[in-house]
Amino acid sequence: MGMDNFTKHQQGIIKRYYQNIDQITWQKLSELVGDLYLAEGKKREKLWASAAAHMEKLEVPKDRIALLLAKKDPSQLAKLVEELMSGN
Question: pTM higher than 0.85 for the full model?
């Protein structure tokens, strides 16, 4: 499915989305930090899985992701988000 199937306006929206994908992913990851502080049980496990997926999208080294998932400390995830945002 090519971009020909979309209107000029829709094409612009899609292009802007992909131009800002890193910022969108950072935002989602930072929102997960707050959710992780409040979550318990299965919900917390799902949130950590989602955080891992976002970290992979942001190309965080796999060993660092593994370390964060082993500790499951939201404050460590918050520090990572700060690092990512200050680095770009």
Answer: no
